[in-house]
Specification:
Largest sheet: 5 strands, antiparallel
Radius of gyration: 41 Å
Helix content: 40-55%
Number of domains: 2
Structural class: alpha+beta
Distance between the termini: 98 Å
Length: 190
């Protein structure tokens, strides 16, 4: 019986010894395992973010190409320097076609902006309400970008012409400064 107790006691001591050795040896391994798991989760999140960015990059690139095409198209509405005299002639021709009488047509000093200049033109015309409306419509549908600002309309007291009005306003013509961007291969795919 003493032998059996001794065997059990020795077995328990050996078992405790193995557990102690296991605990001492496995502790650093478990700590390293936990550190690697945290690092793995972080890297996995970074990879997921990178995949999401890669997907959005293609969408953003397509959007950029689309916006560049629209920009080039809209840029055609801005005359270049050498087109300005023709544009001024077109404004006058539209006024005459509408039937208004020009009392003043005076280009003002340019106002520089980012990539274009504003060329204000002080205009004063006389005509009927409908003639003025036609003239403004012609300006709105001109082949180049124009803007009308600071309009004032007054009634003219002309004997025999009870429906005559006088309008004063600024026509803003926009002139592109610089060279037009060349078409890029991605924009020519159309």
């Amino acid at each position: 019986m003493i032998i059996d107790r001794t065997r059990i006691l020795v077995s328990i001591l050996i078992l405790v010894g193995f557990l102690g050795v296991y605990y001492v040896l496995s502790r650093p391994i478990e700590a390293e395992y936990n550190r690697l798991m945290v690092e793995y989760v972080k890297k996995k999140q970074e990879v997921e973010k990178a995949r999401a960015l890669a997907k959005s990059f293609e969408k953003l690139k397509a959007r950029k190409d689309s916006l560049e095409a629209v920009f080039r198209e809209q840029l055609q509405l801005l005359p270049e320097e050498e087109d300005l005299p023709g544009l001024l002639d077109e404004i006058i021709a539209n006024g005459r076609r509408a039937g208004v009488e020009f009392l003043l047509f005076q280009p003002q000093p340019r106002v520089a902006k980012d990539f274009y200049d504003e060329v204000p033109i002080q205009v004063e015309v006389r005509g009927t309400y409908h003639q003025l409306g036609r003239f403004l419509t012609y300006l709105a549908y001109a082949r180049r970008l124009l803007n009308v600002r600071n309009m004032s309309i007054t009634r003219e007291n002309i004997p025999g012409s009870p429906y005559t009005i006088r309008a004063k306003f600024l026509v803003i013509a926009y002139v592109y400064k610089g060279k037009r961007p060349a078409a890029t291969p991605s924009s020519q795919k159309g």
